[in-house]
Structures are given as C-alpha cells and as structure tokens.
Amino acid sequence: MTAPIAIIAVLTLAAAVTAMSLRNLVHCALMFMAALAGVAALYLGLGAQFVGFAQVLIYFGAVAILIVFAILLTRGTEPPREPILSKAWITGIAIAVVVFGVLSAMVLSSKALTREPGPTPQLPVHQLGAQLMTKYVLPLEVIGLLLTAALIGAVVIAMHDEEGG
Amino acid sequence: MTPLAAYLLLSALLFAIGLAGALTRRNAIIVLIGIELMLNAANLNFIAFWRFGPNPEALTGVVFVLFSIGVAAAEAAVGLALILSIYRHYRTTNLEQVDSLKG
Predict the structure, then answer these.
(1) Which range has the worst mean pLDDT, A43-47, B4-8, B67-71, B94-98?
(2) Does residue B98 sit at the A interface (CB-CB below 8 Å)?
(3) Is residue A71 part of a domain?
(4) What is the pLDDT of residue B103?
(5) What are B79-91's pLDDT values in tens digits?
(6) Looking at the 3D structure of chain A, how many domains does it have?
(7) What distance in Å separates the CA atoms of residue A36 and residue A15, rounded to the nearest whole number?
(8) Is A117 inside any structural domain?
(9) Range of lowest pLDDT (A49-53, A85-89, A114-118)
(10) A135-148, pLDDT tens digit by residue?
C-alpha cells in the first residue's frame, strides 16, 4: 500500500467515524459523502476506474441526495434534545469491536493472502459491457426489475395517504 | 503484510465503524447511513480480491460490485421512503420511540 493510498484510507476512516458520531444530521450526511469519495478514490487506486465513477455517479448523485432530502423532510436539521446514542450503546460498540477483532484475526492468520500481487489488471469498459450483455445478462435484467419494483414501492410507501387510508 | 491483507483490514475497519453506528445511534437516517457504509466495505473487499486475485481478467468482482451498488441504491430508496412514512405517523425518527407495529 503506497503513501497516497494510505492517506486516502486514513481520511476515509476518519470521515466514516465522524459521520457516525456527529450530532447534526446534515454534517453526518456530508461526512458520509466524504467517506464515499474516499472509497471511490480507493477503487481508482485499485485500477477499477469504471466502478469508481459508477460509485460517484450513483452514491453522490442518488443516494446522498436522497439522504439529504430525507433529513430535510423529517426536520433532522433541528439539533436533537435527547442523547444521540441509544440506551444499549455499550453493547453495540462491543459487538462492533468483536466483529472487527474476528475479521482482522482471520485476515492476519490466513495463508491464502500471502500471495505476491501481480501487475495492475486492465479493466476495458467495452469488455465489461460485452460481459454484461452476454454472461451476466440475466442478473442485469433482474437488477432492472428490482430497481423498477423498488422505485414503485418507494413511491407507494411514501405517498401521502389521508387519514391513514 | 501483503496489500490485499491491508485492504481487507481497511474494509473490516470500515465495516465495524458502520456496524457501530447502525447499532448505537437513535436516528433512523444515521442507521441507514451506517448500513450503506457496511455495504461499501463489502464492495471494497470485492474490488481488492479482483485486483489481487489469481485471474482478474474474469471481471467477476467488478461486475458483482456494479450489481451490489444497484441493490444498494434500491435499498436506500425503499429505506428512506419507510423512514418518511414512519415520520409522518409517529412525528419522530427516533428509533426508541418507534416501538409498536400497529401504531
């Protein structure tokens, strides 16, 4: 891992921690966007340019804006009077620490990960498109169906109904 | 430590941060943000395995991440719609006050 990648990684983690710990929801959403930008930069560093730009397009263009809209529509900009952490926050932190411990122990003790890395693989977009249209065409169609169903479902759920009808 | 192990540790840490946020915060929107962070950590694992794996020309990891991002977008849309609906009903997004199914 080179120095620029390490700096990006540290910034990503710092942004993620801040996004999870700030009091103001809008600040949380902004730091979440910073963490997403860090992950997109890591994708670029790993040679997956198309995925990095897809991440920027979908997460910045859709998910982050959606989250900001939700914060504004639920009056999340007003700072909360009650504490931001739930009553069982110690249990939650403990579970997260245990999960990280198990994962890192597995990673550090695995013999399969000692392989020396090869050269950065190429990711030609035309090859990716050809694979999406041939080998992965069924998952692609299913994703299209899922997105349509999710959008219709989201509209129906969020539709304003009079008197709980 | 090989680069792959470093990336896996990084994504494990990102996953743990998202998990801690999802388990400890009271606000439903922040819980959703934590879940999105966990999904991103999983995607980072896929890309790292694709980059350092034995045959990257198969493009499996990349395609999987593209589909995963699509599913995450659908999940965010439905999740935020549910939060809006809950807010309209209970006048709060605090998860500790949303404690009955029938309302």
Answers:
(1) B94-98
(2) no
(3) yes
(4) 54
(5) 999 998 888 888 8
(6) 2
(7) 9
(8) no
(9) A114-118
(10) 999 999 999 999 99
Establish if A118 belongs to a structural domain: no
Spatial separation of the C-alpha atoms in residues B9 and B2, rounded to whole Å: 11
The range of the structural domain enclosing residue A146 comes to: 124-165
| C-alpha–C-alpha distance, residues A15 and A13, integer Å | 5
Do A75 and A146 lie in one domain? The reply is: no
Which B-chain residues 35-54 have CB contacts (< 8 A) with chain A? 36-37, 40, 43-44, 47-48, 50-52, 54
Residue A86 inside a domain? The answer is no
- Chain A nearest CA to B45, separation (Å): 10
Q: Which of A62, A79, A96 represents a domain boundary (last residue)? A: A79
- Token pair recorded at residue A103: 């994962």
* Residue of chain B nearest A98, judged by CA positions: B16
Domains and CATH numbers, chain B: 3-90 (1.10.287.3510)
Judged by average pLDDT, the poorest of A101-115, A151-165, B41-55 is A151-165
Q: What does the buried/exposed string (b/e) look like for A89-104 if buried means 16 or more CB atoms within 10 Å of the residue's CB?
A: beebbebbeeebeebb
Closest CA of chain B from A143, distance in Å: 7
The ipTM assigned to this model is 0.91
Q: Are residues A133 and A74 both part of a single domain? A: no
Query: Closest to B18 (Cβ–Cβ): which among A16, A46, A153?
Result: A16
pLDDT at A161: 65
The CATH number of residue A37's host domain is 1.20.120.1200
Q: How far is residue A40's CA from residue A46's CA, in Å, rounded to a whole number?
A: 10
Question: What's the half-sphere exposure (Cβ side, CA atoms, 13 Å) at B78?
Answer: 14
